[in-house]
Design goal:
With 463 residues, the chain is α+β, with helices and mostly antiparallel strands. It has helices spanning 5-53, 59-69, 105-117, 145-197, 213-267, 273-299, 314-326, 350-371, 401-405, 423-433; strands at 73-78, 81-87, 94-99, 123-128, 137-143, 310-313, 334-339, 345-348, 375-383, 387-394, 437-444, 447-455. GO terms for molecular function: ATP binding; phosphorelay sensor kinase activity.
Length: 463
């Protein structure tokens, strides 16, 4: 009960109501004391007026008047003359004098708290204004026992009433909290438990229905989170299946490529000039394919191994990429350009950067070929103080809006017919492995530009 939301609301409500009642109690008890003393002044005034009406009153009648008024003596000032109207023996010296004519709230509260804290009976003098223009001043002397007893009784009644109010308020608030908060929260928790049992089941995604705005916003946020998670799990399952299939294909493909590698060794021995020129590139392509298959089999996932860093000339691997892509477009009006300084050397994994640039160039080539219009693809390089920049620019039709929404998401960013949507995600992963970034700088009817940014500083800070 105490650990539940409704239980804690009940306790907090009772505590807060009691605090409020205490804050009300202090001025209330001060007001009660003032009214008690004013009542004694009024009674004393009535008794004194009765005595003034009859000059000769028996001593026993005077004592009865004082007893009914609850005072020891009465002093009444009328017409600037101060007169002791009623008097009886005072059992103790007067300890305090209180003037109620101009007493402020703070003074009344202070005197009331002092009276409650003083348990010994005392004799006090009280001064006030007579009622109904009965004189200029009235002064009485009385004992504090009855005053304090009345104040204690009044305070206890206030405390009991406060406790009852706190209990009733707490129960009502508990019912309200259970209906407005606890019940909807339990429903959300139930949905979360149900979803956790089978997060891939889209039917278990919560449907917002809370009437309270904050709870509905929480349900909507949870719905978005569950929807994204369900989609991610399906995507992960698809990637896992694909990874298993790729591993199997890579195993057999590696064997085939290994055989092809043996044949290329024989081709390199040919005396034909054309064969001699093309054989090294063929050998390089097959070698890269074999290494890729081995890496896929070694890691068994869609994860890339850490890059093996070395310093190499960027123009060399870009030239290999362009030479490979030229073979694919011999029957299409597509030109290639390389604008890389001859002395530009970068630090990275040559094989991984080759694949990243090849994916960008291949995407550009497929976009231009599918458009049916002539075009140009250029790869440029530049050096900044803290980074090497590699830009791949084409004059193709640009990326469609749908492809831009999930640009680097596997299987969702294919912007060309027949594409798998893996090229950009692979390139992004390879560049990130170097601590760099792959960004889309521009796209439109005039073409598209991707930029690879590689940091020049290494782990140990060397450039």
């Amino acid at each position: 009960m105490l650990n539940s939301l409704s239980g804690r609301f009940v306790i907090l409500t009772a505590v807060f109501v009691m605090i409020a009642e205490v804050l009300i109690f202090v001025p209330s008890i001060a007001r009660y004391r003032e009214e008690f003393l004013m009542d004694r002044l009024e009674r004393a005034q009535i008794a004194s007026l009765a005595l003034l009406a009859e000059d000769m009153i028996d001593q026993s009648v005077q004592e009865e008047l004082l007893q009914n008024a609850g005072v020891f003596n009465v002093v009444l000032r009328r017409n600037e003359a101060r007169q002791l109207v009623l008097s009886a023996p005072i059992p103790a010296p007067i300890s305090q004098t209180y003037d109620l004519r101009d007493a402020g709230a703070f003074e009344l509260i202070r005197d009331a708290m002092n009276r409650l804290s003083t348990t010994e009976p005392q004799v006090i003098r009280v001064i006030g204004d007579p009622t109904n223009m009965g004189g200029l001043l009235i002064e009485v002397t009385l004992e504090t026992s009855a005053l304090r007893a009345a104040m204690v009784d009044y305070g206890l009644r206030i405390l009991v009433l406060s406790a009852v109010i706190s209990l009733v308020t707490a129960v009502l608030l508990n019912l309200a909290v259970r209906r407005l908060l606890v019940k909807p929260i339990r429903r959300v928790v139930g949905h979360m438990k149900s979803y956790a049992e089978a997060p891939e089941d889209a039917r278990r995604v919560i449907v917002p229905s809370a009437g309270v705005r904050e709870l509905r916003e929480a349900e909507e946020s949870l719905q978005n989170l569950q929807t994204q998670l369900t989609s991610a799990l399906k995507q992960r399952e698809r990637l896992a299946q694909l990874g298993s299939a790729v591993a199997k294909v890579s195993h057999d493909l590696r064997n085939i490529l290994t055989s092809a590698q043996l044949f290329t060794d024989r081709i390199e021995m040919s005396e034909d000039p054309t064969v001699k020129r093309m054989a090294p590139k063929l050998v390089g392509s097959i070698t890269r394919a074999v290494h890729l298959c081995e890496a896929t089999l070694a890691f068994g996932k869609a994860e890339e191994p850490a890059p093996t860093l070395s310093v190499f000339a960027l123009e060399d691997i870009v030239g290999d990429v362009i030479a490979s892509e030229r073979l694919s477009v011999e029957d299409h009006d597509l030109s290639f350009a390389i604008d890389i300084p001859a002395d530009m050397r970068v630090r990275g994994d040559a094989e991984q950067l080759y694949r990243a640039i090849q994916n960008l160039v291949r995407n550009a080539r497929q976009a231009i070929v599918n458009s049916g219009a002539p075009g140009e693809i250029s790869v440029s390089g530049s050096v900044e103080d803290d980074a090497w920049l590699i830009r791949v620019t084409d004059t193709g039709p640009g990326l469609p809006a749908k492809a831009q929404e999930h640009l680097f998401t596997p299987f969702q960013s294919a912007g060309t017919r027949g594409g798998t949507g893996l090229g950009l995600s692979i390139a992004m992963e390879l560049v990130r492995g170097h601590g760099g970034a792959l960004t889309l700088e521009r796209t439109g009817t005039e073409g598209t530009t991707f930029c690879i940014r590689l940091p020049r500083g290494s782990v140990n800070g060397a450039a």
